[in-house]
Amino acid sequence: MEVIIRPTKQAAIKLAAQLIAKSVRRKPHFVLGLATGATMEGVYDELARMHSAEKLDFSRCHTFNLDEYVGVPPESPFSYHEYMRKHLFSRVNIHPLCAHLPNGMAPDLAAECRHYEHLMREVGGVDLQLLGIGRDGHIGFNEPLSALRSRTREKALTPSTLAANVKFFGGDMDKMPRRAITMGVGTILEAHNCLMLVTGDSKADILARAVEGPITSMVTASALQLHPHCQVIVDEEAAANLQGKDYYRWIFENEPEWAPYRA
Ligand code: F6R
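^ Those are the sequences you sent over. The predicted structure of the assembly is below.
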């Protein structure tokens, strides 16, 4: 695992978008794993900007989102389908048939989950999985005690996740679904590369537990410590509780691979 600390949220977002863009340029048939949530909005703004200003081309990419709420139709303003349409898909040239999200309205949710895994395997697996972290340490909607080898499945949301996400439902807890389909921790760990973006002081405590604490299903993001190619990009606020932050800063300032991003 590699932790990169950037001075501000905007700089962290920019670096995450630059790394994604570099990978997409290198391999046009790129398979990109996507996340939703407030943290990702800036990344999608930056990718959209690169698409129009720098000709970043997604036309041959496939995308797979981590999760979708159960019982929320794709056309609902609260669905992750709609979030993705608004923040990314309507602004870049990803082919609609290649932009995949789980269907939270499927009559047989277990079959839908198996089908989703099948689709990912069919395109050769996810090249790069973009991730945020929840206040309870989740990646995707892998809430505490999710098996670290879990696959795509239905999962009940914790009170902490409900409280964090109710803002996307106009603050109305009655509108909030209680369950979601999510890629499993095991599914996420099979991505060839993982890129977790974490910003803001509200994530400082959980980030330190995920990155420097023990690997535990109580903090499913800690399973990323097992991944051979995982980069964690954070801003100074989120990095506040990291014990190794001087070392992480040294890596960014001195390792040749980061030279193009230091300016
Ligand atoms: C959603 C997802 C979640 C979020 C996490 C952080 O697709 O994968 O794990 O990344 O809940 O959300 P924000 O960025 O809103 O704090």
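Residues 35-39, 66-67, 132-134, 138-140 surround fructose -6-phosphate (CB under 6 Å). Strands lie at 2-6, 31-34, 62-65, 67-69, 99-100, 128-131, 153-156, 179-182, 193-198, 230-235.

Shout if you want it in another format.
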